[in-house]
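hi! just following up on the protien thing from before. the input was this:
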Amino acid sequence: MADVGELLMSVLSTIRVPKPGDRVHKDECALSFSSPESEGGLYVCMNSFLGLGSQYVDRHHARTGQKAYLHITRTRKAKKEDDGNSGSGHPPKKKPTRLAIGIEGGFDVEQEQYEEDVKVVILPDRQEVTSEDLATMPDVVRERVSLSMAGIMAADSVSHTLQVQQWDGEVRQESKHAADLKQLDNGVKIPPSGWRCEVCDLQENIWMNLTDGKVLCGRRYFDGSGGNNHALLHYQETGYPLAVKLGTITPDGADVYSYDEDDMVLDSKLPEHLAHFGIDMMTMEKTERTMTELEIAVNQRVGEWEVIQESGTTLRPLFGPGLTGMKNLGNSCYLNSVMQVLFTIPDFQSKYVSNIDKIIDEAPSDPTQDFKTQVAKLGYGLLSGDYSKPVPDPGEENGAAEPRGDQIGIAPQMFKALVGRGHPEFSTNRQQDAQEFLLHFINMVERNCRSGSNPSEAFRFLVEERIVCQQTQKAKYTQRVDYIVQLPVPMDQATNTEELQEAERRREEGDSSAPTVRAQIPFTACMAALSEPEILTDFWSSAVQAKTTATKTTRFASFPDHLVIQIKKFTFGLDWVPKKLDVSIDVPDTLDLSGLRATGQQPGEELLPEVAPPPLMTPDVEVKGILGSHGNEEDDSLYSPLLSPVLDDSTVSQLCEMGFPLEACRKAVYYTGNTGIDAAMNWTMSHMDDPDFSAPLVLPGCSSGPGTTPTESLSEEHLATIVSMGFSRDQATKALRATSNVLDRAVDWIFSHLDDLESMDVSEGGRSAAESEGGRDPPPGPRVRDGPGKYELFAFISHMGTSTMCGHYVAHIKKDQQWVIFNDQKVCASEKPPKDLGYLYFYRRVAE
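and the predicted 3d structure came back as:
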């Protein structure tokens, strides 16, 4: 061991002991998905603490000169047989009893048991040093190396902090009203059973107000079940804050809701409060499901979940290149589904996977923080097939059993941490909207593709909006960039209206056996709703210098290589409560959108004058700077930018109380001319998907607005990023000035304000109907691809649950004419792909 001891002595200065704040990657390779459980184990650099798989450790040594690595290998322990195992050899899954993850009674999180082997390896010859070997070495070597080994093994790995966190939806806080709750001496006594709503006689979901003893029904749920909101209305009338759900009272407690705190709460004086109305907690038995049980049941809605996951059939597991599962990191199925689809698209494959060796060679010293490296790592992990292997069953030593559905798969922990960093939603373990994540990721690709190919161009297309003033028949043309077609769902076009009405009637009558009927909506009706003209009742016409009625028609100014269609299932009810439409749509396998091609200005059609509407202004400010349509040399705006708008504070407040961002509320009131809450609400609902929805209000026609940044202080790096997307420097400058020099907002702003950028004004250069398909010039503005509008379906993402904030996502992708279901780690041949229940649909252009 003398040679190894001398070798360790020679590299002792490069061996560090982890300090607080050091990032220790001891569970996952920075460049691949190798782990200590993988063949060859994981090598942790004892200087930088980067984890490296056996295929990359030599490359890291050659590049950095580092020689000392801690080699960690883990082998799975055989599971002990349990008396409660099912006949299949696997214990039956327990039904969750808590709305929780990773704790007793919650949704199960598998915890594997491993045997671990740790030793120091010296490169390039891979000489090994065990803990026993260290005992014979000089004190200085033994102490430093032992401290480093112990520090690495004791440190919390980076991936550990990103794994599924224990989360308990039942953790409730003591209500601020509990200690001093006012209770009326009105003689009300509540019987131990037989409760009915005092308003509508409903017998389920019954709540008693703890102040006056009123027995009323609870809220109506997203799916139309539940109560009729009478308990909530009673609170709004009286201000009595606490209510208990009758039927959930046991000696251990009950469901108590605080309307003022808008949450389930604890009431430490609940026995006393119930006794006031003659209820003895110690004698009560539970007859109603608790709110937690209801939420669990809603999150496992049988019909939708079983159909989308194809639970009723035995699915054949698939393994191999392009058939790799992804582990769920705790509500990360939205990310898994989107990335599975994206890496079936050639643009993403060629950008990141085909060049992976070059990308890794050029990676920075910390590749875990490099976007290109982590995307390439993910893409290669999905497409290579290296991780598409069955999960080994410890009980089958020879592996002779049939393959299980679950794969070893990949855990995209580094990727999720990187793309979600700094984002208020994607950095959390909460469920998210797959459509919002897709746009977020495309935005990141745009920002990181400053040179070379940009795979997001596969989705990018131009939309032409044609607005016609009904009073003068003059038109206005604008263009904007988009990546997703949002398809409305016209519920009034359902083909099974009678069945829906009958099911609703039976539910209203309290028939618990009423079947759940799903609305059948023709896809043609959705497309008609998308393409039909929209009536604008408050359109400010520059031709008549006043508000009038106009029609707006939306068409495709270009057709992308890959078309994404979002079914707008998530909407708001009449009470502004978000809900999901339970619909079935006969989405076709092939699609021809040629009839929706924009034609531009028509022969003989007159355009509306380019004159901005007058801004709202304070009554005591003299109107200055009314300059006509051209302005003067100092100011190119129609009105003086010094005029400040006056907004109806009450309308702004009403919108804010509904949960909308303050700046969005201000814009809604401004752009509807202080005409009231209805107009402002309509504007808000129609602009919720705008990228700059919550950005500060920038007055139209102002050369500089509140929060703008002088040109001389703009970031050259930000300017270069936007210019690399195909925009001019002037356009980039305008976008950054309008968004306070914030790059993310500037990118969103520029894509949603193409008509505000002078060099992108296409109203004069619109296409004529006589132009041929192949003879069109590329549309102005950012680079877009164009071609025939004929497509075929190759993938769709489905959502199960009542809203985007809960539930589960699954992807179906067509591989070699076979539909494949990607359900996190399960990858199987699809028997009945539920194409009618999808949320996001992905089409590719059909070659002619």
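The CA atoms of residues 537 and 549 lie 5 Å apart.
The longest strand covers residues 546-556.
cheers
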